[in-house]
Amino acid sequence: MPIANIKAGGRGSSEMDLTGKKVLVTGGGGFLGTHLLAAMRERGLHDGDIRVPRRESLDLRIWENCESAVSGMEVVIHLAALVGGIGFNRRNPGRIFYDNLIMGVQLMEAARLAGVKKFVQIGTVCAYPKVVPVPFRENSLWDGYPEETNAPYGIAKKALLVQAQAYRAQYSFNVIYLLPTNLYGPGDNFDPEDSHVIPALVRKCVEAVQAGASEIVLWGSGNASREFLYVEDCAHGILAATEKYDGAEPVNLGSGKEIRVSELVGLIAKECGFSGTIRWDSRMPDGQPRRCLNTERAREFGFTAKTDFREGLRKTVLWYRKKMKLD
């Protein structure tokens, strides 16, 4: 059922000061989570008020663990997800669908039953249809099927939007739903088996320089486009929405700037010092043809991306080189 047919209330805003609140952050040990925790500390929140469950000890696919996680919490920010790049998605569609859906459904229900005051569900740009007018507006979410390699992840996350709006309509449960675009920055996952596009390209270029290679081979045609949001900016956007947004409608979090993958590769190669040939393997998929978000709704609660893309790339490459002890 399209979200337009669910009576869920309109947009709204109010002030919620998180200082002193008991806040659960799932996925707090991950890429986005570590930056969100840092932003929360900058905001004045104390570690004693923040609960960060780890999968090793509290698997959120198990109902009783969700009950335990939300107990005594006033705010839940649900970041935890099973996610990766195109290759990972193609190898693990069943796991991706089940894990992301079951964690979100159970955690939101447990939070409702526990009397949590606000639940922040993190969605994904992968929920958008494969072909949709650019820039993507939130009301286009239901205008088609997601790109095939992203569909299990995107649909699992989009189902949580339906749950959020249904819970708001029936139970007056305050759930907001945020749609970040592709993230990048220090601390990203650079594993070649399941990394996203920027860390995968950085690693490939750095390794080519180390090996003295004259060529790198990349998936697709290079013609697809993407939008990227620096991870620290995303963390601040989530905090801003948590404190200032109470609407039923989903909200894009992005930079609003689009770049072709071929141009992106050129920027990363230059930053990494690779000057060889780029060869495209067109037998492999591009993924979604274009991605760029309309960010007007987020500006209503004061969020705009601050980090210059080239500066963000420099910081990302520098972090990776230091991690690999190359500098």
Report on this structure:
With 327 residues, the protein is α/β, with parallel strands linked by helices. It folds into two domains: 3-184 and 229-253, 3-Layer(aba) Sandwich (Rossmann fold), CATH 3.40.50.720; 197-226 and 257-291 and 307-320, Alpha-Beta Complex (UDP-galactose 4-epimerase, domain 1), CATH 3.90.25. Helix content is 39%, strand content 14%. The protein contains ten helices and eleven strands. It has helices at 31-42, 63-70, 86-91, 93-114, 151-171, 197-211, 231-244, 261-272, 296-299, 309-323; strands at 23-26, 50-51, 75-78, 118-122, 175-180, 182-184, 215-219, 225-230, 251-253, 258-260, 277-281. The strands form three sheets. It has a six-stranded parallel beta sheet, with helices on both faces. Strand 1, helix 1 (31-42) and strand 2 form a beta-alpha-beta unit. The radius of gyration is 20 Å and the shape is globular. The protein starts with 22 loop residues before the first strand and ends with a helix. Residues 1-10 have low confidence and may be disordered.
SSE layout and pairing:
Layout: E1 23-26, H1 31-42, E2 50-51, H2 63-70, E3 75-78, H3 86-91, H4 93-114, E4 118-122, H5 151-171, E5 175-180, E6 182-184, H6 197-211, E7 215-219, E8 225-230, H7 231-244, E9 251-253, E10 258-260, H8 261-272, E11 277-281, H9 296-299, H10 309-323
Largest sheet: 6 strands, parallel
| Order of the strands making up the biggest sheet | 2-1-3-4-5-9
CATH topology heading of the largest domain: Rossmann fold
The whole-number mean of residue pLDDT values reads 93
Please give the alpha-carbon distance between the first and last residues: 53 Å
Helix content: 25-40%
CATH superfamily of the largest domain: NAD(P)-binding Rossmann-like Domain
Topology as a string of helices (H) and strands (E): EHEHEHHEHEEHEEHEEHEHH
Number of domains: 2
Number of helices: 10
Task: State the total count of DSSP E strands.
Answer: 11
